[in-house]
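Section 5.1 Outputs to date
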Amino acid sequence: PSAPPAVKLAAQPAPVTATVTGLPSREVRRNYHKRLAAWAQRAKNYAANLTMATIELPQGGAAPLLASAGAAAQEPPPQRALSPICRLAAASVREREAARVEARLQGSAMMHYVLIARDVYVYGSLDPFTFDKMVAQRRRKMRQGNMEPTDDEVCQALVDSATRSNKAYDEAAEALGRQQATYFEETLQLCAAPLAALSLAAWAAEVLFRCRRRKVVKENCD
């Protein structure tokens, strides 16, 4: 009998287990780092024993990684099984994405929207952290160092980076955490600038409208 078609590993949903919400940023960051640290240890064990990774991680399949680096193709590339280190890389990317989403759900909704806007501005995409996109991004960075990395070298670099927290999120969370603010106070601080901008825009529009109306009345009177 023919083997069943491979399932694209990167497309499998990442588990998100957020059960607590309304936490201040310092607690959200602590939980985020705790989950990343737990996966980092697990990934380290897998990297030291790829046979165990081959047995325990999903087999999956993916388009050739070289194609994801920007090579043009008229037809979708054929699916192929991932190597053990690339399966570990895909699992690491999914785990970091799950940790990121879980952390954002635990904290301020306004912070969540700010970080989404930042992702779009920096990466030009609402979903920049898929396995294929992370592979392409990592390969570009490695090529800037005058090297032509293999697929496994790219995947190893992804495993290493996926267990580190996001610098932008940490900086924003630390800035709020130093103030020892509550969840409610953080939300007010994050909303203050947009509300002030909207108020200023409304005031400017009202002034312009009144000036325009006075000009029309004056012209009619003349």
